[in-house]
Specification:
Chain lengths: ~350, ~625
Amino acid sequence: MIHYSFADFKSDQEVKWCPGCGNHAILNAVQKAMPQVAEDTGSPKESFVVVSGIGCSSRFPYYMDTYGFHSIHGRANAIATGVKTANPSLNVFVATGDGDSLAIGGNHFIHAVRRNIDLDVILFNNEIYGLTKGQYSPTSKLGKVIKTSPFGTIEKPFNPGELVIGARGTFFARSIDAEVVLTKDCLVEAAEHKGMSVVEVLQNCVIFNDKAHADFAADKAMRAERTITLRHGEKMLFGAENNKGLVLDGFKLKVVTVGEDGVTLDDVLTHDAHEKDTYLHNALAAMKYPDYPVALGVIRDVDEPTYEQEVERQIAEQQAVTSIKCVDDLLNSGDTWVIE
Amino acid sequence: MKTKEVNDVVLRFSGDSGDGMQLTGTLFSDTAALLGNGISTFPDYPAEIRAPQGTVAGVSGFQVHIGSQRVLTPGDYCDVLVAMNPAALKANACWLKKDSTIIIDADSLDAKSVARAGFKSEDPFAELGLEGYNILTPAITSMTRDALSGLDLDQKSVVKCKNMFALGICLYLYDKPLDHPKSYIQKKFGAKRPVVAEANILALTAGYNYGNNTHAFANTYRVEAADLPKGVYRNINGNQATAWGLLAASEKSGRPLFCGSYPITPATVILEELAKRKDLGVKTVQAEDEIAGICTSIGASFAGHLAVTSTSGPGLSLKSEAMGLAVMAELPLVVVDVQRGGPSTGLPTKTEQSDLRQALWGRNGECPMVVLAANSPSDCFNTAFQAAKIALEHMTPVIMLSDGFIANGSQPWRIPSMSNYPEIVPPVITELDENEPRFLPYKRDDKRLARRWALPGTKGLEHRIGGLEKDFLKGTVSHNPLNHQRMVEARAAKVAAVADFVLRQEVLGESSGELLVVGWGGTKGHLQAVVEKMQAEGKSISLCHLTYINPLPRGLKEILAGFKKIVVCELNDGQLADYLRMNFQEFKYEQMNKLQGQPFTTVELEAKFNTLIEK
């Protein structure tokens, strides 16, 4: 029986993020999630690997007492793909940011999603470049005024959920840094999902983009009204009194209040995270305040063959039928001739 | 008619890039090799897959040199040119020997095709000044049509078989049997498309019979089997040999092989060859780009595999930052660069020794990597093995330089036995030493200065690595000024120490004298052929051909000191020459440089060396 505590996953390195940074809460959630993942899956601590790119969030591996690789900007998903393909028995996490995975590393990110390799990606989204001291990122809101956009950005932002689901990703969840339990729960589900998992954590950069998510996530009461936490098999309800719900109105989602205008609980959609069709998951991931509540929790969790399993399957199949068992066999295969 | 004995012959097959000339040439050379001839081949093809038909831009060529002795080069100029159309004739006329034979499809000599090839007159032969050459004009297309008239096959597929007709003629001319091409065709088409197999074999046979029946040739020729060392042989090209050498290193080290790569000419075949080898447990990732190619490999290396990425010049540029990471992380990695004409996209299908400077210095910071270069198609096997051995045992990324000429060229290779190759012992650590309470990821051994390789999954050895400067022992992030200097020096010393573990530099010929020819990489065959010829003529000339470029091998300085003149021969503007000037300033270096996307010719090398000796 494998049992670890929170402390087992903490390294001896001093955490050097700014006071008040949302990353502290995320680190806390990860250090709580990993012992549970280890226990649930029977994985020893030495099977955990954390790979990161560059950015504030990418300092993450140094704070975890696991195998860790702090790599180069944008490449964490590619490096992690190599780690997991080489050794599928490892639990490979990626700590990355909106600049790291959606700008310089965007290509690796979407292709890792497309391949469905079993990585657990924690995407810290603070809508800003923090480590370079405040430039707009691919998730910054249109019009954001910051050092490199003194007159406001003219670029439309990516929504990471739409990217993942658009690439037919098999797992997408969203949380907020302050919601440590929800983040932990999402991470555990992500780790136990076979295939590429992306957990977007809306993170607050207290220095360069403070209150980026504050219009819907400033405090618990506001989050109850302006976000919806989706749970597989449960009605899509939210609000302080849990009486607001989501229904489909034609092809679009619509917010209703149960008990008003003849709406009953039966009319409210039930969340099916396991549905392979991407349509509704995409619509949920795309919801933006104030038109909709922002969707949190596990939005999509579908079962498909994973990349590394398919690699292993092909190797096993070929090894079962081949006459080439070693390099000598290979060198002597095909057309050869003898000189006496 | 009689069969004449000849010692060697060079044939060049040329046609539209869709005419199947690469296959035709390969089947001819494989047939010769199977019969024991020495061979060397040189595919010379355009970057376009199907350039406009009948134009000079679309001409694809394949040159093969067969001999009754060891063959070192694919030959400068050809004895026989097979041209499937006037454009092929025009593109290749410059490669004809004075008294050579030209076989050209008569059906292609209509006014329109001649004009399309860019001839100004209606007589391409006169325009090229080919009077006096032995010009044969069999109607290859129409005879192929006639031969296949009984088959239930569309005209397009029928005409596609004309390359086999041409091959049949050449096999007749050089007194070779049809067994090998027949069995190849059967294997390729027999099961799935029997009518296509039948058509190709009919065309092949018809071409052979045409040669036999028409007495179009005054003689046929025979090249006797070469006097090669005893053993089992196969034909091998450089890319295949590279892939197989890496497999050999994987077997000898017990580390499974991983290759993350992105397709790029002329390196792609390495990835293709390794992708076939699931039977030997190889894992390949066709990555989304060059950067992901190397980064997946770095990840696999971290996880304990022998990791490789293959590329060509532009791809090496894209991998620069990640190579720096591998240097910093001190992980084993083999980067194979199959060089091509540069800069930028350059000449993708043409050879050049373009990337030596990039391999040595193309990274930010003080970032030394081991660099070595293969010198022939079959030598790619040993060089790839050696590159992997150094990477694994010294915990360092290694660049192996190949080039388009040796990567695509092929030669007979005496198949080695893996029992004759050394074991490879990477410094994998599985548990802590007694006197090491906590794992020190950057602790080094005394001789190689290599750190130890602790593989994820190993209990108690959890550690973090990365691109930030690391503490000399603990591997934690360190911005300490003295630590940085110490680490820069340690990484440099580690690479320099490789020289203590590889062979001393050898010289071909006397170790002192008039002229020392210095080369590296794929030019060796040409340089050796010329040096040996001049040595036989009594000239004071020796060859020093480098495999190890960083670090330079022991003994090199002493060799350089032994000669009155040194000439550095390269298919670039003097990259090795400058590097030698930097390392050994006391010597004067002459240069022989060529930047035409083509190998040296032995003729131009010999002329240069004679001039230098006589001066």
